[in-house]
Each structure stands twice: as structure tokens, then as C-alpha cells.
Amino acid sequence: MTSPPGPPPAPDDGPDDAGTRATPPVHTEHALLTRFKTALDAVLRAVCVTLFALLVLLVTWQVFTRLVLDAPSVWSEEAARYVFVWVSLIGVSIATGEKADVAIDYFVLKAPIAAQRVLEIVAYLSTLTFAAVVMVWGGWTNAHQTWDQANPVLPVSAGVLYLAVPVAGVLFAFYLLYHLAGTLSRRYAGVEHTAPEEGVEL
């Protein structure tokens, strides 16, 4: 006689299913934001390098005309001032995005993670308020008021110079919101300390 058939085998919950259930969900919004930030960083670095090279050429020409030709160039000095303002504010924006701006974080690093999160949130919100009110709104108002003010030596208005402030304010606001989102996320592991010797790579 043959023995009766045994009970049917239990469903196979192999490691693949378990691994699939254990995998945390992918945050699509954060991934898209990170890719956008990476692309923006690359564009700003290229713009900053180009403006810095232009600034070097303008200053070199200014020195040459002043010391060699004994006829200082007026337009190059004014153009160098415009370029210097733009490259400075864009460079500060890049440093903000890389968290390489000046920060006194000695005591913050000594605090517990929960306190670090609160301090960073307060710092980001305060700086974001300054960027939105003073730089974006105030800078745009100033640029709008001087947009029709002609420059006597350049074919651009004075508003182009002041336009750098609201543009930098928008960049500041984006980077601050990006860092604020990271601070509020579950992946937050404390204040990121950037050593001075690391700097910002262009």
C-alpha cells in the first residue's frame, strides 16, 4: 500500500520576497531635486569660471593701459566692477550649496542630534527669510528702479549690476530649501562639518 499524500508545501517566502519587502521606498522627489541641484552646480561653476577669466582679462587690460599706454581705460574698470559683483555672488551661492560657507559650528557639533536638527532648522529659516526679503524682494525693487539708469561708459544700465542681488537671492533660497529638506528627513545624521582646507572645487 502507498502512504497517503502529505500536506501541500507551504508557499515559498524566499529571500527575494523578503528583501523586496525590507527595501525602503525610493523618494523620487528627493532624487529629482538632487539631480537638479547637480545640474545647477555644474552650470554655476561654468558661469563662475567664465566670469572669473573675463575679470582677469579686464583687470589685465586696465593695468596695461594705465602703466604702459599711460591712458587708463575707463570702460574696462567699470566692466570689471560689474563682473566682480556677479562672480562674487555666484561664488557665494556655490559655497552655500556645498555647505562651504563660513559657520561657527564648534558648539553645535557638541550638541545631541536632536538639538543639532533644531539649530539647523532655525538657522536655515532665518537665512531663508533674509534671502527672500532683503535679497530677492529688496534687490529686485532696487534693480527695477535703476533699470532705466544709463551707464555713461557701458552699453548696459545700472540695473544689470543690481540684478545680481535678487538672482543670488533665488539661488540662496533654493540651496537653503534643499538643505532644509535634508535636515527634516529621516536620513539626518547631524551637522555636516566641512574642513576649511577642503573648500569648494570648481
Strand content: under 5%
Please identify the oligomeric state.
single chain
The number of helices is: 7
Number of strands: 0
Task: Tell me the helix content.
Answer: 55-70%
Sequence stretches where pLDDT stays below 50 over 5 or more residues: 13-26
Taking the sheet with the most strands, its summary is: none
- Give me the secondary-structure category: mainly alpha
| Spatial gap, N to C terminus | 83 Å
Mean pLDDT, nearest integer? Answer: 80
Q: From N to C, what is the helix and strand string?
A: HHHHHHH
Rg of Cα set: 27 Å
**Which overall shape is indicated by the principal axes computed on the Cα atoms?**
elongated
Question: What does this protein structure show overall?
Answer:
The radius of gyration is 27 Å and the shape is elongated. With 202 residues, the protein is mostly helical. The longest helix is centred in the first third of the chain and has 40 residues, at 28-67. Mean pLDDT is 80; it is low at 13-26. It contains 7 helices and no strands. It starts with 14 loop residues before the first helix and ends in an 18-residue tail after the last helix.
